[in-house]
Amino acid sequence: DFFKGKIQSDMNHVLPSDREEELLHRLSAAMTALSGLDGTVPERSLLTADPRDRTLRVWSEEGEVLSPPEVTKFAKGLGSGKLGRVTICDDGSAVFDLVEKRALKVIEASKNQNPGSDGSTPSLRVELPSALP
Known about the structure:
4 strands; alpha+beta; 37% helix
């Protein structure tokens, strides 16, 4: 009850339009303190939590469901080198891990590519997702 009363008292000094944002800020600060985190979580694989790897997501602009061989061919064409397991997600996109340096190389190469321009393959895109689909 002490903390509840303290928050209610403090909220009297906050504009009504800013109260929700202030409460969310306080909640996130409390959760951070309880979790023991002292800043942002370091980047890592979303699949294995390995700090050396990054998870890449590939998807078709046409919304087609991708296949592991199709994703492997696409990624290797961007300089990925050997891929591990390619997982197809419920939304039809695919995710896989690469060592950080190669993952960044693939992302950069994808920016300079015009996939699907020959009309024979679907237009595929790649990103470093912040969460799995």
